[in-house]
Write a structure and sequence with these properties.
Chain A is mostly helical. Chain A is built from 9 helices and 2 strands; from the N terminus they run H-H-H-H-E-E-H-H-H-H-H. In chain A, strands 1-2 form a two-stranded antiparallel sheet. By secondary structure, chain B is mainly α. Chain B starts with a helix and ends with a helix. The chains are: A mainly alpha, B mainly alpha.
Chain lengths: 210, 63
């Protein structure tokens, strides 16, 4: 057996997960950190590059004169003139990189005095009659106008990055999905079902004969 | 094809980082061995890319 074949036969129990709960927290805070803690360096690198790379690429796409990373923000104001930003519930799974949005929301939920050049700040709340009135204000209409499709692309990428980190978190908690084991269980279940059906048919046939 | 329409088609290139990130993260959640992981991820990227191109072509023909 070659080294590669041997490695591929690593069972889930042989993977050193250390304390999985600490790993989960670390994996949520910074993608890949939980795996680094468990000593799974290659995986840590893959998760960090893919998830953080995607998140920052999306954040850069949605940056411009109106501020930095304007596609990641918290806004919980439903109705006219408001903006309910459900995307943040997915984006927050990326961990620390999405935290400035929380700080900005706590600092000023109206978006009038944002910190750090508007990094992840909520858009300026304006009354419905004034929406898009001034071209210089950072209302959601103006941000969308200035960034154009880059706003949507940034939103998509940062949201995807957050959702992908959920995979990484589960991987840190219980190791990789054992596909062979899952397939074996599925086949066993199917076999049992078939046997049950056959037994029922035989029983019915016997009853008919009687 | 008009030049502007061609430029809009270039927007599809934004899908590349998405496809690769999704494939590699999904593959990493299913494999521990690096060689298997990379093979699984590349195969998945090819599948995703193929279906995206197919959908794109169908939509171009239809609309």
């Amino acid at each position: 057996m070659t080294a590669t074949e041997k490695d591929s036969k690593i069972s889930q129990s042989e993977i050193q997960l250390k304390d999985p709960y600490i790993a989960v927290w670390l994996a949520w805070l910074v993608p890949g950190l939980g795996h680094l803690y468990q000593g799974r360096k290659t995986k840590a690198m893959i998760y960090a590059i893919c998830i953080l790379g995607l998140f920052f690429f999306g954040a850069i796409l949605a940056s411009g004169k109106c501020g930095l990373a304007r596609c990641v923000y918290i806004s919980m104001k439903p109705g006219a003139g408001g903006d309910m930003r459900y995307y943040y519930f997915a984006q927050v799974w990326v961990g620390v990189p999405a935290f400035p949005a929380i700080i900005q929301y706590i600092h000023d939920p109206t978006g009038e005095n944002p910190l750090w050049n508007g990094l992840m700040a909520p858009p300026l709340r304006v009354s419905p009659s004034l929406r898009g009135y001034s071209e210089n204000d950072n209302s959601i209409d103006n941000i969308r106008k200035k960034l154009n499709r880059r706003f949507e692309l940034g939103t998509l990428m940062t949201t995807m990055a957050g959702l992908l980190n959920i995979f990484a978190i589960f991987d840190a908690l219980s190791g990789p999905v054992n596909e062979e084991e899952t397939e074996r269980r599925r086949k066993e279940k199917l076999k049992k079902k078939r046997m049950k059906r056959r037994a029922k048919r035989q029983k019915d046939d016997a009853a008919e004969e009687i | 094809m008009e030049p502007l329409a061609f430029l809009r088609c270039l927007d599809c290139l934004y899908a590349i980082p998405l496809i690769f990130a999704t494939s590699f993260v999904y593959a990493a959640s299913r494999n521990e061995n690096t060689q298997n992981l990379v093979y699984y991820a590349l195969r998945m990227s090819a599948t995703l890319g193929f279906f995206m191109v197919l959908t794109f072509v169908v939509m171009m023909i239809l609309f």
